[in-house]
Design goal:
The chain is α+β, with helices and mostly antiparallel strands. The protein folds into 3 domains: 82 residues, Galactose-binding domain-like (Jelly Rolls); 106 residues, Immunoglobulin-like, CATH 2.60.40; 206 residues, Glycosidases (TIM Barrel, Alpha-Beta Barrel). Helices cover 14% and strands 30% of the residues. The strands form 7 sheets. Strands 19-20-21-22-23-24-25 form a 7-stranded mixed β-sheet, covered by helices on one side. It has a 5-stranded mixed β-sheet with strand order 12-11-14-15-26, with no helix packed on it. Strand 16 and strand 17 form a beta hairpin. It is globular. The two termini are 28 Å apart.
Length: 434
């Protein structure tokens, strides 16, 4: 039995019947506690969750205020459980979170499915389906590689590319079979066949230019702060953006609930996924005032791992508006920024580099693979910058340093952190926690 936490802010420890079962740092990403051997079927258990959420010191908070009330550009703080918690019955031998990459050029999906135990005779079988039935089937031995991989090829007459104009999603069935051919684990999910490339200053979706009319969505709710009040509210949020003429959203300074991405996938809503990196400033002198910790990198890795399979995501932004003067020596911000860039690149297919508009300090946009770019506001005059700050203004001149990077491919929605059997569509949000 696995106990899944969608997100708990910020440093979390979990006990079951007095036994520690999990620790996790980060208020935006999921984690799982293994209850094997602690609770039997039909038994009750006492679950204790401790969440430490200091308003002092360095911490990835996003737009959460460090004071008692809303002020300026920051909002009421959230502490503790703010996303869904659920139990999942799992098999002793099971699949983990799949990684599905669309390959439009070859009309196929590359599917990688880690398993928790490579028992002799295990076989991974995958089926791709649409409304007319089975599109492709493939099987591969699952006892020779830690993460068995296979390719599902789509016949030309069954190709239907995902886009805002046609948000077509294929169904995806995954099964793990033992040596006797019996199914020991099964999961159902979906995948969108689409590509993102760059030609000059144009972003191409499936080889055609697409203008990204993106609304800035901060994901705060008057009645429930960071927690969406209901699943219908997440849908309404997207529908309002579309009704206003937008074809997508930049999710600003918050890692949204995965149910939001599920709805964006099925509605054809483009998304820039962003980390809530604010909370590292004011820690040192000018030129070294940003002091993000190593946990910024580990949390961002968890974000990319969770959301890799969503076709709606066309951009990754690990750091945003992290203002700091550029001096002649490297700082901790440079190291962490490089780490987050490499983390994005290593987990998404390679693609060309690009610059990002606005003030993101490290922004990844997928191309045929992914792209991560770094952008930092340069102060042509430190004295002018300080004068701007005293006047409450922000400079608009920015330059960018380019670096090649990779990004997502296809995206299957998978809710479980260490998925086993069951449907991988993200769970519905629980009642809003305030």
């Amino acid at each position: 039995m696995h106990l899944h936490f969608g997100a708990v802010d910020h440093d979390t420890t979990v006990w079951v019947n007095g036994v520690e079962v999990a620790r996790h740092r980060g208020g935006f990403t999921p984690f799982t506690a293994d209850l094997t051997g602690l609770v039997a079927a039909g038994e009750s258990a006492a679950i204790t969750v401790r969440a430490r959420d200091s308003r002092h010191g360095v911490q990835a908070r996003g737009k959460q205020a460090t004071w008692a009330a809303n002020s300026h550009w920051s909002y009421t703080r959230t502490t503790g459980i703010w996303q869904t918690v659920w139990l999942e019955a799992v098999q002793p031998v099971r699949m983990r979170r799949p990684k599905v990459t669309p390959q439009v050029g070859s009309r196929s999906f590359a599917v990688v499915v880690p398993v928790n135990a490579n028992r002799p005779g295990l076989v991974l079988r995958a089926r791709l389906l649409d409304a007319a039935g089975v599109v492709a089937t493939e099987a591969v031995a699952a006892d020779l590689d830690l993460s068995p991989a296979l390719t599902l090829r789509v016949p030309e007459d069954r190709v239907r590319l995902w886009s805002p104009a046609d948000s077509h999603l294929y169904d995806l069935d995954l099964e793990l079979l033992d040596g006797a051919g019996e199914v020991v684990d099964r999961a159902t999910s979906y995948a969108g066949l689409r590509s993102v490339t760059i030609d000059g200053t144009s972003l191409l979706l499936n080889g055609r230019p697409v203008f990204q009319r993106l609304v800035l969505d901060q994901g705060y709710w008057p009645e429930s702060i960071m927690t969406a009040p209901s699943d219908a509210a997440l849908v309404r949020d997207i529908e309002l953006g579309m009704a206003a003429g937008f074809n997508g959203a930049r999710l600003h300074q918050k890692v949204f609930e995965e149910r939001y991405l599920y709805h964006a996938d099925r509605l054809g809503y483009l998304v820039w996924a962003e980390f809530g990196d604010w909370g590292a400033s004011g820690q040192g002198p000018a030129g070294n005032n940003q002091q993000p910790t190593a946990s910024f990198i580990t949390q961002w890795v968890e974000v990319v791992e969770r959301d890799y399979n969503h076709p709606s995501i066309v951009g990754w932004c690990p750091l945003n508006e992290t203002h700091q003067e550029l001096l002649d020596r490297l700082t901790v911000l440079d190291d962490v920024m490089r780490g987050m860039f490499l983390a994005t690149s290593s987990r998404t297919p390679p693609g060309p580099s690009s610059t990002c508009p606005g003030t993101p300090i490290a922004c990844a946009r997928p191309t045929s693979g992914t792209r991560t770019t770094t952008s930092r506001t340069r102060r042509r005059s430190p004295r002018r910058w300080r004068a701007w700050r005293r006047a409450g203004r922000t400079p608009t001149t920015a330059t960018a340093r380019r670096s090649p990077c990779p990004t997502p491919g296809s995206r299957t929605s998978s809710a479980s952190s260490a998925a086993s059997g069951g449907t991988r569509t993200p769970p519905r949000p629980s009642t809003a926690a305030t």
